[in-house]
Amino acid sequence: MEYITNSAEQTEQLGEKLAGAVSAGIVIAYTGDLGAGKTAFTRGLARGLGIDGRVTSPTFTIVNEYEGGRLPLFHFDMYRLESSDELFDIGWEDYLARGGVCAVEWSENVDDALDDSCIRVDIRRGDGDHQRLIRISGIEL
Question: pLDDT 10s digit of each residue in the chain, 141 long?
């Protein structure tokens, strides 16, 4: 499905809606330009999972963990990884085994490690500063 949002708040609301449809062990693979809204979408995802607190980009930590909701959320940023081999070095399989939701920014950097069952979320800039074109595949909302 394709969606158009016109603010960060609307992008978050779409992430919140997706949270209601996900189950334990799911991987959400994000693609999109720098500053397109991947972290805003993840803030909504966290809220929809019942996670309180501030959600930030894991650019420098590679992964941020959020607990306390319906499911734990593991928010990855693969921007600095050069291959999927590095993904396994940071314990990817352990995160998958923990039964949470793995939200992966810059998933194209590790695409060969992701299977066909993941949800794909592509976020692009639209017309104007705040409009986003968001394509979600792999799940019905």
Answer: 999 999 999 999 999 999 999 999 999 999 998 888 999 999 999 999 999 889 988 877 889 999 999 999 999 988 888 778 888 888 888 999 999 999 999 999 888 889 888 999 999 999 988 999 999 999 988
The per-residue pLDDT of the chain, averaged, comes to 92
CATH number reported for the structural domain that contains residue 126 in this entry: 3.40.50.300
Show Cβ contacts of residue 40 under 8 Å, excluding neighbours closer than 6 positions: 8, 11, 12, 15
**H or E element that contains 19:** helix 8-19
- Which token pair is 36? 């397109």
Distance, in Å, from the CA atom of 129 to the CA atom of 37, rounded to the nearest integer, reads: 11
**Could you write out the DSSP letters of every residue in 86-98?**
HHHHTTHHHHHHT
Counted domains in the chain? 1
Range of the domain at 90: 2-137
